[in-house]
Amino acid sequence: MSETITTTVDTPLAQVLKKHEAKALATHLDLHTAGDLIYHFPRRYDERGEHTDMRGLQIGEQVTVLAQVQSVTVKPMRQRRGNMLEITLGDGSGTTLSCTFFNQAWRERELRRGRWGLFAGKVTDFRGKRQLNSPAYQLLSADATQDEAAEEIEEFAGALIPVYPAAQAVPTWTIARCVRTVLETFQPPKDPLPAAVRVSRDLAGIGMALREIHRPSSRGALEVAKKRLKWDEAFAVQLTLVQRRARAAASPGRSRPRVEGGILAKFDASLPYELTEGQAQVGEEIAADLAKPHPMHRLLQGEVGSGKTLVSVRAMLQVVDAGGQAALLAPTEVLATQHYRGIGAQLGALGRAGELDGDPAGTQLTLITGSLGAAARRAALAKVADGTAGIVVGTHALLYEGVDFHDLGLVVVDEQHRFGVEQRDALRAKAATPPHVLVMTATPIPRTVAMTVYGDLETSVLSQLPRGRSPIASHVVPPEKPAFLDRAWRRVREEVQKGHQAYVVCPRIGEGPSDEDVEPPGDNEPARRPPLAVTEVAPILEEGPLHGLRIAMLHGKLPADEKDAIMRRFAAGDLDVLVATTVIEVGVDVPNATVMIIMDADRFGVSQLHQLRGRVGRGSAPGICLLVTESVEGTPARERLDAVASTTDGFKLSEIDLEQRREGDVLGASQSGKHSHLRLLSLLRDEKLIKEARAEAGALVGDDPDLTRYPELAASVATLVDEERAEYLEKG
C-alpha cells in the first residue's frame, strides 16, 4: 500500500485491504468502508495471563477466549475410525473449557501444555461440560525472544489485546490486523462535537478516541476513549429525541378536554370501588394532556394487574365526550376479545347506546378482528365510519384498508413491544389531524431505558396494585431434584380439588419442530432437544399425572372461534387445566386460576416469565408459579430463573433482563435490520452520562432546533441514529 493514500471514513475497504480480506469483512460482517470497520469496536480487551471468566460463556454463543492449554489427550473414537484430540483450556478463574479436534492429531505438536493463545468458536454442551468444537486459534509464542514477543504482541495492538465481535470465517485476530492496516493511513473526520461541549464535559477529540479504542496505549487512555465514544452515542440519541419532542410539542393536534356531566362522569359514579391513588394521579396527567391542542405522546407502564386498562378506558371516554373516537389496539385476538368483553362489562349500559337496554347518553363499543364474519364486519365498519362507535377495540385488522374512522382522537396501544413501528403509524394515519397516543406496557422499564428509548414520550408509572390482589410465590423446579416435578403435578390436583384452576405453559405449539427450535449438533454432541410443545404435553398430562381432570389446549394456530370458546369455558370454570403457549401472556384474566407451571422455563425471557406469572393470583386466593427447567446450577439460564423466582419487583427484573439482553436490540438496531453504531453505551452503567447528554441536547436544541450551526454534528447524528431508527425511537 502506498503511504501517500489517505483513508477516510468513506474509503471502501477494497482500496485499503487485500481483496480477500475486504470481501470477507463485507460478506460475513457487513463492513464495507473504513468507517464501518473503525466503528466496529472491540467488545472487550484481554491481557496475557489475565482470565476472561469462562463462567460467563453461554451455550450457542460465538466466543473468543484468551486461555492457556492445561492438558492434551489423543484417543481413538468409539463410533467410527480415527482419533480425537482433546485439550483443556484454563483462564486463571478455576473454570475450564474443552476443545475437540477430529482426526487432527498433528495439532498436538503445537498445542502444548502451557501455551497461551486466542481460541474462537461456538460454545456447545456435551454431557454437562462446555466445549468448543474444532475452534480457530492463534497461539502466542512461548519461547520467542524478547524482540519477537514484543513484535507479536504489537500485532495484537499492544499489551491490551482487543477482542472483536467476529464471525467464524473472520476471527478477531484477522479483524485486528485489518484495523491496524486501516489506521496506518486513517484521517479522522472533523470533530462533530461542539468545542464548548468537549471542554465542559472534559471529552477527548474524536481522532484520539478512535485510535485508542482499537490500539489502547494504557487502561487509562482506553477509558478516556470509551467515555468520548459513549458520549457521542448518548448525545446522538438524546438530540434526536429532544428534536422530535420539540417538533411534537409544536405540531397541531385537537384538544379533547373533559366535559362536565358526560359519559366519563357517569362511568366514574358507577364504579363499585375507588380508584387507587396512582390511577387517580395518572388519570389527571392524561386528562391534562388530552386537553392540550398538541398530540399527547405518553407511555403508561405498570405491573400486571395495576389497573392500566381502567385508566385507558377513562381516557377514551374523555375523548368520546369531546366528540371524538378512541381505538384500542391489542396484539392478539384473544387479548382484543378479552378487552372488548372486559370494557363492555365495565361500561355496562353506557357502552350500549342505541340498544334496548342501553343508556342513550352513552356510546357504542365495537370489536374488529380478522375473524369477523362478512355481515358482522360490514356492520362494525359502518359504525366506525359514521362515528356511532365511540370506542373501537381490535387487532392489526384495524390497520387494513376499509377501516375508516369518523374522527379518531385517541390511539391506545396495548403491549407496545408486540407491534412494529409501521403498524402503529398506519393507525395514526387514519386520523385527519394527529391523534393523541397512549402506549401501555406491563413490562416495567428501567429509568435509563425509558430516557433513551422513550425519551420523547411523557412517562406515567402505576406502581400500586388494586386492593384484593393476592401474592404470587415462585419456585424453580430443577433437574437435580426430579421429585419436585412430581410434587408440582400433585399441587395442581390439590388446587383443582379446592375449586381452583391451573395453567401449564409450553414454549412451542407442536406439529414438528421448526428449524430454529433445534440447535445443530457438533461432531461430538447430541442435538439439544426441541422445546416442549402444547400438543405433546397435553396428552401426556391427560393420560398421566393429571388423569381425570378437565384439560384443554390453547395456542395461536387454533381458529379464532375455537380459541374464544376455550377461553370462555376456562373463565366459566368448566375446565380445570389450560395447556397453552404464550398466547395467554397478556390480558387473560381468570381470577380463579391459582397455579401456573411453565415448562422449559429457561426458553423464555425474564419479562415474558414475569408477564406469564401475572396470570395467577388475580383473585382472593394466593398464586403459585413453578418454573420447570433442565438448566443446571451455575448456568446463566438458571441464574435468570432464580432471579425471577426471588422477586416480583418488575423494575428489578427489567434490569436483570436488560443486563442479559443485547442492548442494541433495546435501542432499535434489530428493528431496522441495519448496522447500529450504538455499540458502547450501557443503559444501566452509563445513567449519569446519559443524563448529562440529555441536558446538553436540551440546551443545544433550545438554542438551535435544527442544528444549522453544527452541520458536522447533524451529519454524525444521522449516521449514529439513521432516519428509520429515529422513527423507531420516536414511536416507542
TrEMBL record:
Keywords: ATP-binding, DNA damage, DNA repair, DNA-binding, Helicase, Hydrolase, Nucleotide-binding. Residues 289-462 form the Helicase ATP-binding domain. GO terms for molecular function: ATP binding; DNA binding; DNA helicase activity; hydrolase activity. Pfam families: DEAD, Helicase_C, RecG_dom3_C, RecG_wedge. It comes from the Bacteria. Residues 513-522 have a biased composition (Acidic residues). Residues 484-659 form the Helicase C-terminal domain. InterPro entries: DEAD/DEAH_box_helicase_dom, Helicase_ATP-bd, Helicase_C-like, NA-bd_OB-fold, P-loop_NTPase, RecG/Mfd, RecG_dom3_C, RecG_wedge. Residues 507-530 are annotated as: Disordered. One of its GO terms (biological process) is DNA repair. This is Probable DNA 3'-5' helicase RecG. It comes from Paractinoplanes brasiliensis. The lineage of its organism: Bacteria, Bacillati, Actinomycetota, Actinomycetes, Micromonosporales.
